[in-house]
Fold these 2 entries.
Entry 1:
Amino acid sequence: MYEFKYHRPGTVRQAANLLVKNEDAKLIAGGHTLIPVMKQRLASPPHLVDLSHIEGLNTIEMKGRSLVIGATARHAEVATSAVVGEAIPALANLAGQIGDPAVRHKGTIGGSLANNDPTADYPAAVLALGATIVTNKRRLKAEEFFQGLFSTALEADEIITKVMFPLPKKAAYIKFRNQASRYALVGVFVARRPSDVRVAVTGAGSDGVFRVDAFEEALKKRFSSKVLEGIDVPAEGLNSDIHGSAEYRAHLIGVLTRRAVDAANAKE
Amino acid sequence: MAKISLIVNGNPVTGNVDPRTLLVQFLRENLRLTGTHVGCDTSQCGACVVHLDGKAVKSCTTLAVMADGHEVKTIEGLAADGAPLHPMQEAFREHHGLQCGFCTPGMIMTAIDIVHRKGHELDDHTIREELEGNLCRCTGYQNIVASIAAGAKAMAKSDLA
């Protein structure tokens, strides 16, 4: 790891000021992506700004008809939160599948989203549920937030403060894990929302998380896994690597979406 | 350099560290608490698991400066020198839950964390799921699972948490 200066701000405003003052500074909260990347010397930020001690930034609560999760809420907190379990059980279930128990004690929702790893779990939930990402500057819709591989709409001095999830009628997340890394080889989050149905896929797209329009249209007419039979997802634009070919991933998207729809329907 | 002060195994400690020092390095090299091991150094194997504010974390993926003001417990903090072993340590001894012993400190710290979260009656399936982040290359896990099930029960009757 290369040298850096460590900062521990007490407020989001202080953290933002540190970002403005120190060029190429990076935010850290759980550190479970950033520290490994820094150890490999793939990243060498000269300044680290630690958000994990900012009070109130990890709050999980219902606000009106939205579930609001603070940026530094850890995966274990989301997975075991009674509020999340009541409001969107599929989201608690997703958080409980990230990494392993020790990783879940450190990793945060804000960190996962800001990193936008193409195989991370949270992006699928945020896109399928139509969540809003709130920063110290503005509110971003999921569609505008994710901008391809490891890139987001976040500006250099912008900090995610919370994520607002509108409540779906039904939802489920099914993940096909890479056995070694526990990242999603393919993960599908299906949400039946009051006005539409969304199917978001992580792990498979060479450009990050994406929605499957053909599935969404069919499911909007009738929310049953049966309507998906015969609709194929093209392998074009999907990842191909030692873990699976693009064709295999395309096949998995269909299988996992059907399972997710069945799981969402079973929860009634 | 950064000044840090934290509680390790119940004792206040201070240090002057380069911010890039990992918690595991600080424990092993500054405090000479070498029971916590570095295995893969990539947050996968769990040999470095310690408790940070009572929760199992991978100390190879935590900066020492991030632990400033917090409380750390390592394998050395489970039982006093010369005193009887912690019931989870005793269960690993009794059930032959180790061979080479390299993964054992992390296994035991994870096992105790499982008991804190899931209680004293643990079935094999739960234990195996929860051990996802701890690798052992010797035992084939069978005896580790047996040790944790027995240690979890024994902890119910012990004063050591």
Entry 2:
Amino acid sequence: MSEYQLLLQRYDPEHDNEPRQQRFTVQGEHTTSVLDALLYVQQQLDPTLGLRWSCRMAICGSCGIMVNGIPKLGCKTFLRDYHAEILIEPLAHFAVEKDLIVDMTQFLAHLSAVKPYLINDYSGTQPHKQTPAQLAKYQQFSNCINCGLCYSACPQFGLNPEFLGPAAITLAQRYNLDSRDNGKAARMPQLNAKNGAWGCTFVGFCSDVCPKQLDPAAAVNQAKVESAKDFIISMFKP
Amino acid sequence: MSTPVSARKPYQPKLGRSWWLKHNYYRLYMLREATVLPLLFFLGCLLYGLYCLTQGAAHWQSFQLFMQQGWVIALNLLAFAASLFHAKTFFALFPRVMPLAPAWLMISGQWLATLLVAAGLLLLFGGWL
């Protein structure tokens, strides 16, 4: 067992006007995740600590936090990889509701804006088949768990919250690449817009922090290629 | 009965102008974007050279003297290094944007094409090869 100092950002909307920091000492062994440590703090040291979590296995995407300034899933980050003091803050670029809980309304609005579902006329009862090659085209981009880490890594979203952002554009690209989908025309106006794919300057940090290795930066920049093609094709249409 | 008052008071953090100093990844990104600055100087030299060429021998010689100055050579070497660094980042990003072939093949193909074009230009204008 080793001892770690957690420097937590606290914010109580009923008493604070801005966030403050509070130090907690926790014990950690080889398998202690940052989420385990936060739950220990909440259950043993200070029950007023607010945080989100659910699955503890990097599936639900709820426990996103900033660990030493880098967006991470608390459950997939281990104390053993850090030295004595660890700074833990809520996800960057989002409004803080309380302690480590952020308001993700804007993120969810951006996700739904790109119509992230299959759009087609298919109404048969037979399975809608797909070849492995057709699946491979979008499979990587379909692994998103909507944790929002990429939005905290994206300075363009931090500077302009109207920017659709990495996960939403990746999701649009995921459905546009799906052979069962005919909804591309409905999604392109969102991607073509000022706050769509062109708001990205390929900083690329989103891909670095993605806990599912989706490479959202690649998806966003592939969407730029699609947007350019869409523009050229539209010039030849009456 | 009074209407309940919401206890919500979200704190919206602001991203200041120095955001890119916060993290190494951002600093590297800004360095990549800043490679255009020494390239602007190189382009200025190129345009000045073309202008001098149209103005006759005396101007052309003064341009050559200008280019031989230590600080001009240093800035142009910086522009060369910057463009190589930019090329390295660009070549690495390209296969992710247009995944036409395995990434390693596309990256080495781009470097090979750069070398061939550079060698061709040297042969054409420098007569060194």
